[in-house]
């Protein structure tokens, strides 16, 4: 029972609790529903607005409030009034996703899930006279003034702003600047916003709008970041700001005072900026903040910055824009945007790096800065500067270094008051290879290395006052370097005064107190120049090297322009030194004066020039007046200007010394004059040139006499000339005359053309010339042309409209009409057009034309061509096609008097095949020697195609030599075979085989004639002729060599050569002094040679060879010849040798030789020291790899050392022939200059028994003693220095006495050398006529021994006569030295000295002999057994001499071994001969056996 009661009680209690819970839930649900009813929520929202207005003194209103089911508030037409009762915030619709409980709980801590504003309009205004804007004042109202213990106002939520407007206006600014921001289409997404009193924290996800300022539109695409706004700070962290042209990444803080806010943005708002890399800002966006920034250039930048906009300090800044790069650890920008005119902008940087150019700076800098950049910076191009720089309104300063397109500059400069009329400046500049050409607008002055200090003011020429002191360590002038230049000067208001000093090895001069005054209308110039040394060749190639000028120049002139110039220029005491020659000019004067309107212009220097121009004239008009005068002789010439009130006469008397002093290379005869006069009113010119000769470079005028008188209507010009030569072309006996009538020029001339008188072509021409429009018309009256074998008449049947040539000056088209040549029965007619080598057409008709009459002998030279030609030829050619129509026969064709046969040539058009068929045939005595058949085909758009087969049959190939005669002559031989030519007409391909028979030729420059030893097959492929080990030999000595390689040709006129030669013994030079007086001889060589190049450009000969036995080369140091003038006529001013002929053997320009020669004692080299006296050196020796080079322009150089060995002589000519023996190991060294510029190091000795040495020394009797005269040659071969010394083979005391007496008196030494060489004795006070008799006997003995020596090549004899001594009482003596050269191994040299009387004990016979036997394997004198016997009387007193010379003999013998080596192993070990060396040795032995 109890249990039941307890159970009922529990269930009852549980039911009560359930009812209570249900009631509570009902109450809560009812309350929730009531609170979320729209009327309730609207009531709550209105209560909130009322609370805000009451709590914070704001004026916020909304026309309508809606609440959706979820309780979100929607405010319509929300407006916020500012303290001026202006609706500065308007929102069309504001939707708040609110937290209702937070509103109920605490209106000071509002949480909004989302706040969406549609079309809000915000006007931030700073009213006139106020410091704070309305928005800041509105925000400040939410700041709690309650004690800290009380809660502050908080608002937190999310904000979306759609299509809003925002403007910021400051009415305290000028009206044009009041609107700082005016935006449209403003959209904003803020996922998180938090307001605590007046502090606003915003997480900005997306913010974009379109704005406008200063009538310019801006687009902000995106702004994102974390923003904090308070009454003292606007912070933008993690900022990304992207406009249509800028992108900024980084962090930006704006700090300002609570009082001022943004009201003075440029001066009061403090920036704290950290811009990251990849940021960029455009000039357009900068212009939003800086109104005067008038450029849109984009600038990439990264930097840290701190300060206000007018005092901004940047660190680690990097800027780049349009080819400008700038970086600086520190950059301070002050007052760039200030509106205060008193304040000055400034830019200050330290250790900055700048790369820019003037154009780049002008592109991206604002105009208010760029216009103040000096334009002269343009000349520096792209510039790299590193250093310090500052600029403000008054001062520009820079200290650093700059590398630019014109060089390097280190500078410390200051420029102040640069905006004034007289800016001031000073500084110090160092330049390194600074190119001034961009400043001077001339390339004359090149890079300068200098140190310059300057100070002054003004850039205007009327105000400038500048002082400078410059030290130029290096200046480039016309490409030449000048060192050590110093100048000090002052330019003060159009008056320059200064001095100049130059201390350079090539130029040393001084200008003291020079001045140039241009303050008045007439400029005044005065200066004196002292030229200490001026190396002319260094500055101009017109003069020879080693040419030095010295002298004084005084200048005193006045002028307004060149027409009224008066004054003098005097050159005094001018010295021109060229090597050892000295030209002296005491005075050279240029003077101009004016008297009563007449001007007198004089140039005068004694024995140099006398020139005068006198009359009424303007100096500047003289060239144009002379041009007008000469224009009287030119058709269609119309003077551009008349000179009615001007006239003058002139005379020029020019001497050769003028051109010598000017180093112009002009040779002119004395008495050369140019005289004449000009009358401007009638435009009449009269001038006459008279000279005996005028030479300049390759031009030579002999006896020119030219007279022009434009007033003479019948003969306006006439003249004569004995000869006119240009290069190798010679025009002789020239006469010409003519006149102009009715705008046509009529002229007659006769002359002879050709180098050799018997081969000249004589012309007697009559022609006229006129002009119609753009065409020059040349016509011919009957004229005669006399060739060497016939006379031709040009236009014999004269008609005015025939034999005419037209030349169009616009199209360059030459047209020939009815040009006719006739000689007896021979006739040639020519017509056609010529535009270029690829565009022409010609018609030629031949009637019984004798080839011997029509081809000048000057072209054929030593060749001849004969035959009778008949027929016609029509050739039409363009760049795309060739159309030949030929019907031509040449009967009895001969070349060099050898019959070739009858030649027929035909070209016809085949319409069926659309081809031009070609056929040529050469028949000789019924046999076909040559056949050519084929065709030319023209196809549209393609070059003309050729297909021809050539079949020679024992055809004479000598005519091919005409194309090679510049290098080869005597070309001969026959060819048989078959050659097929195909391909483009301009570059055909040759294929086939030729067999060459009896082919030979002469290499002109080498003088050697070669011939193939047997018939050879010549393979032809692709236009190449292949030589495969073809053997050739010289026709003189039959030495042989082998050739292989290629000849290549396209048209048989231009040949490419690539040939290699190898030989063990070949004659490679065979010339005489007549062929080439610079070097000549016979040279045999072994080695390898090659010839490469083309006949139209350059032929290159290279060789590595060894000179063999029998070679003999002469180098003539007295030759005035160079490589381009070998054997040229030496014209002398006193007499012109017109009958002399040039030798044809000379290296053609374009031929180059590069040879490396090794020589030994078996070859002989002759060096001619003086061709007139006969002094020469004959040497045998060794040379390893001696280099010889002939350049393509004709310059010869040599390099290497020739060491003299063996039997070598110096033939010294002093009235009689005296042979000096050259001491072995003497050397001749070439160091890369000309053959005659060799360095000599030669010692030569001449021995003579002298009997009066004791008499000369004044000592006791000394027997006849062998005296040695030494000639020591040094210096250059072309200008050797010869020193002499004397030694004796005697006692020591005699040597010492002689040395003491001679070495103290150089003149005495030279006298005694001459006496010993000429008379065989010393000169002394007791000398009588016997010494002269001795010389006479000596000459007779020399002549006798010369006869004997010419009889036999085995035996030779040398004889000398020695006069006796009166004091020593010794008799005259004769010494005989016979030499027997039995063969190339055994030689015997004897010596017999016999007295003619027995006057004393010293008069004894003496004997001597020496036997040499060469036991070396190759007979090269490397191992010799020698035995000798010689008198031993030298140094003995006469009392001990034996009466028999045989008792006074000494005997001896020995073995001489010679070997050259490069290292010790070559001496110890045995070097094995190569196969080539063995072959060379055998060949050499055979050659020597033939000679024996």
UniProtKB/TrEMBL annotation:
Region (Disordered): 1471-1492
Residues spanning the membrane: 12-35
Gene Ontology terms: cellular component: plasma membrane
Biased composition (Basic and acidic residues): 1477-1492
Gene Ontology BP, a term: protein secretion
Domain Translocation and assembly module TamB C-terminal: 1036-1420
Membrane topology: Single-pass membrane protein
Presence of keyword Membrane: yes
Major localization listed first in the record, in broad terms: membrane
Subcellular location(s) per record: Membrane
Keywords from the named record: Membrane, Transmembrane, Transmembrane helix
Pfam entry (one): TamB
Signal peptide: none
Official protein name in the record: Translocation and assembly module TamB C-terminal domain-containing protein
